[in-house]
Amino acid sequence: MIKCDYWFPRGIWHKEDCGLDTDHFNEFATIHRGAMSGRVASNEGGFQSFDWGSERMHTLAPLKHLTEVVYDVVDVACQDLGFKDYAMLLTNGWLNINGPGDLNHVHSHPGAMFGGVYYSKVPPKSGGITFMRPFDELHKFKSWGTGHNYDNGSNPLNYEVAAYDPQPDQLIIFPADMLHKVETNRSSEERISYSFNITLYSKHINYGSIQKSIESFNDNVSESSD
C-alpha cells in the first residue's frame, strides 16, 4: 500500500463577526485620511497610512478594541502551533483605503511572527486577499510545463493560492512570512481595512529591559482597560 503524509501545513486563522463597531472604524478612517499624509508600500493607488505605534494601537479608540480581539485570536494561533510561556505585542498597524481600481502587490510582513488584517468596509467585488505558495515552490510546478499537464489546485500538494473574500467585521491572522496580495477593487466604492504585525517573546529567554518593558506595558494597558 502506498500512503501520502501531509507535512508542514501553514495555518490561517480568521474570525467573523468580531463585534466591533464598523461605522466607528469607517469614520475614524475617513478622518485620519484627511488629517495625515500617506505612503506607497505594496499599494498601487489608494491610501495607506504611515505606521501607528504599539502605544497608539493599545490606547486610541477604536484601535484598542481591535487590539483586544487580535490578541484573543493570536492566542488561539499560538496554542495551535504549540507555543508556551510567551508574551505577545502588537508592534505596529496601518490604515488601508482602496478605491476603485486600487490593489496591493505581493508582499509579506518581515520582522514579525504574525501579520493580520481587519476589515471594516468591504463592498461586493472590492478585492479579496490571496495567499500564495512561496515562489521557489511555484517554480517547481511551473518548470514541469505550462500548468496544463498536471491537475493544478486539486489537492493541498499542488495548491498555488488560497483566496478569501472577507466580510465587514472580519479578522484574518497569518504567518508574517506568508506571501499575499490584495486583488483589484472592481466596485465603485472604497474598501477599508487595518493591517498590523504581532511579535512574540519567549518568557524563557532573558531579554532584559525589553522583556520587562513589554510586561509592564501589558500590565498598564490591562489596568487602564478595566
Secondary structure elements and pairings:
Blueprint: E1 13-15, H1 22-35, E2 43-44, E3 47-48, E4 52-53, H2 54-59, H3 63-81, E5 86-98, E6 103-107, E7 114-121, E8 129-132, H4 135-142, E9 161-164, E10 170-175, E11 180-182, E12 191-202, H5 209-225
Antiparallel strand pairs: 1-10, 2-6, 3-5, 4-5, 5-12, 6-11, 7-10, 7-12, 8-9, 8-11
In short:
This protein has 226 residues and is of the alpha+beta class.
Can you offer a commentary on this structure?
The chain has a single domain, classed as q2cbj1_9rhob like domain (Jelly Rolls, Sandwich). With 226 residues, it is α+β, with helices and mostly antiparallel strands. The model has no long low-confidence stretch (mean pLDDT 89). 27% of the residues are buried. 28% of the residues lie in helices and 28% in strands. Strands 1, 3, 4, 5, 7, 10 and 12 form a seven-stranded antiparallel sheet that branches. Strands 2-6-11-8-9 form a five-stranded antiparallel sheet, with no helix packed on it. The longest helix is centred in the first third of the chain and has 19 residues. It is globular and about 60 Å long. The chain has five helices and twelve strands.
